[in-house]
């Protein structure tokens, strides 16, 4: 584990160095259409002063529309109408700077969905494994943040290769993984320093104003059907619009729908984000829909976050407390309130 | 000046009375939200529920959106635009007049949280409101904003702030209607080239996620299956293809033409702040010009889109 600082006047050099001379795509919080987003950006445009990015960073690894395979219809060539995989080795590896610790944990939740002992998703894997992820700790968690309630911290380290915090307009930085240590060694702009004590102190200060653990002990102990049949679902669903905003902005929502499209020249297979809040998500070819009303659909999202993911991921909560759905739900359905009802 | 606690008191008593008298099985209104500057719709069935009812500048969506899905007798605590949308749903035969009770509340306009945050970028830990002022506070600071400065766009040209004429009862001192939208920006746009107009409209929706929150929040979008969700046949691709996204917005706007009450619910629900009401405004202007029609103002209007006249001047309709 190595510790460094980057002085304010060396920041741009440091960000440029992260691209390894243009070999890596550089993603960091930067403004697009008036909103801060984790996007591929110019090292000059990085923002260090923000609550969190408007959308989650999952699209870097799991884009809303991802082209999976394609075929052409040119019968003069040898292989018309044969689907060939796309996108696996086409793009340069990434370096992400400024991931919030909650979002890095969100990526870990997704990683265990896309890569586990049953499946490996090559499209996720090729991007995720090669990426260097540098976190930026939160000194000033926002009103809707609750990472500490679900096992995280504004200075959390899970899923990161290194963690930074803002210090005198520049950065202080600690490596966390062997890959992170190797990657950062000797990069321009870095100066060796001792930051451990300061980091611990800042962490404590940031956590101090944040909510305590959300009690999910009863949910963990209860049978699925016991929670599934609780009466509160219907009441919350009354006001849910099934609008799907919560799923689109959530760093751990990972459902997709595969679609084929073609024109006169060829065809494309792609996957697009899908949302369990939608009627279409579960409707069968017969017209039967096993989740016929918004109550079942709304329940699914919260059961998945707070019961199914913990069951499948050794107790880890499927919500990492970023607060995005809490702020953006047009009818204020607050996952903390639902979690309390579930734990009833 | 209207006092909010007083208004809340009146709303709560009205709701309790309606439940007790059996005029409604449920009263739909708003309660305080769980974070600063939010409110949550609430479906009141008990006295305790009714005691949570409030009027708030931070209300987001149009409560009439819930009505077409509601089978029984229902009362709605309605601002001007909510009431107009409810009337529209009766006129369009989505709900029965006798199942609906409108508690009209004179509205002074709602605020736009995005605009507040643009003016006050510090993390807002608490917000208080009265009829004309929004008071904000955070770690070691507090400030206040005149509501007038951060009104929602649609509220600045509202012609129906007080739901007079259609409400079954009215709460609060009636507020003056504001000068109607003059569509000045759209008239300017009309003078531009086709390419410029296309670029303008594509630019409006370029960040759209196609989550369809706008549609789901809209009181007009009550179709059991929306055309974008049809699969047999599938009219529209599902990717972020520019033309598919654009088609969604264009078609939805046409479906809403002459029916939109400018409640702004769609834009308030949109997580990407897309100004999709521009499409509706464009068609509103057309409908007003050609039919002199404003939706939701009376029970016996016939919406232009459902009118048929044998002597219609347009050929294609005969
Ligand atoms: S954002 Fe809110 S209203 Fe929309 S689907 Fe999610 S919980 Fe329901
Ligand atoms: S459920 Fe909501 S708060 Fe939790 S991770 Fe997803 S968006 Fe964030
Ligand atoms: S305009 Fe906004 S609410 Fe509507 S689909 Fe696009 S992103 Fe969603
Ligand atoms: S289109 Fe938008 S402004 Fe018009 S009625 Fe629907 S939600 Fe309201």
Give a verbal description of the structure.
The complex is a heterodimer of chains A (344) and B (318). Chain A folds into two domains: 3-208, no CATH class; 217-342, no CATH class. In chain A, helix 8 (232-239) packs across helix 10 (294-312). In chain A, strands 3-2-6-7-8-9-1-10 form an eight-stranded mixed β-sheet. A four-stranded antiparallel β-sheet of chain A has the order 5-4-12-11, with no helix packed on it. In chain A, 31% of the residues lie in helices and 20% in strands. Chain A has 344 residues and is an alpha+beta fold. Chain A is globular. Chain B has a five-stranded mixed β-sheet with strand order 2-1-3-4-8. A three-stranded antiparallel β-sheet of chain B has the order 5-6-7, with no helix packed on it. Chain B has ten helices and eight strands. Chain B folds into two domains: 4-171, no CATH class; 184-310, no CATH class. The longest helix of chain B has 17 residues, at 4-20. Chain B is an alpha/beta fold and 318 residues long. In chain B, helix 8 (242-255) packs parallel to helix 10 (277-291). Chain B is 31% helix and 14% strand. In chain B, 42% of the residues are buried. In chain B, helix 3 (80-91) links the parallel strand 3 and strand 4 (100-105). The model of chain B has no long low-confidence stretch (mean pLDDT 93). The chains are: A alpha+beta (344), B alpha/beta (318). Chain A binds chain B through residues 32-35, 51, 64-65, 140, 142-144, 235, 238-239, 241-245, 247-249, 257, 259, 261, 270, 272-273, 275, 278-280, 283, 326-328, 330-334, 336-337, and chain B through 33-36, 38-43, 60-61, 65-66, 123-125, 206-207, 209, 211-213, 216-217, 225, 229, 231, 237-241, 265, 268-269, 271-273. One iron/sulfur cluster binds next to helix 9 and helix 10 of chain B.
